[in-house]
Amino acid sequence: MSRVIHFEIPVDKPERAMKFYANCFGWEIGAWGGPADYFLATTGPQDEPGINGALTKRSSTWAAYHIAVASVDETLKKIQEAGGKLTAPKSTIPGVGYAAYCRDTEGNVFAIFQEDATAA
After folding, report:
1. Which span out of 22-26, 74-78, 108-112 was modeled with the highest average pLDDT?
2. What pTM was estimated for this model as a whole?
3. Which of 11, 47, 76, 93 is least enclosed, having the fewest CB within 10 Å?
4. CA–CA distance, 109 with 13 (Å, rounded to integer)
């Protein structure tokens, strides 16, 4: 079974949004350190229920949530067979894994993610 593992909130002004979420909810937010403007948000202790996420610059490929899968390629086939659409092709996140962005049958954009520390 695949689970929701991450969320993204689209923002226009990352600094303003980081301040808002830190002040309102106590989230710890910092730059990812990769090639994109992407800011990881820790929403609580690891031993409590919930998931962490990120703030990302608003774009047309924004995904509200990410789902962990064993294989991006196999899952893309299932998504398309079930009437979903690919909105951004499989991409490599070096040292992290692979992701692709899709649209479900209701028009919602989501991402699928395959963890792979050897991804290059």
Report:
1. 74-78
2. 0.73
3. 47
4. 21
**What would the two tokens of residue 14 be?**
């990352």
Nearest residue to 56 (alpha-carbon basis) of 89, 92, 13: 13
Is the pLDDT at 67 greater than 70? The verdict is: yes
Nearest to 17 by CA among 56, 63, 61, 43: 56
Report, as an integer, the average pLDDT of 97-105.
Answer: 92
Q: Does the pLDDT of residue 106 top 80, yes or no?
A: no
The full set of domains in the chain, from first to last, is 1-59 (3.10.180.10), 64-120 (3.10.180.10)
Pairing of strands 4-11, 65-68: antiparallel
CA–CA gap between residue 81 and residue 65 (Å, rounded): 21
User: Buried (b) or exposed (e) across 10-36, using 16+ Cβ within 10 A?
Assistant: ebeebeebbeebeeeeebebeeeeeee
| CA 100/CA 120 separation, integer angstroms | 16
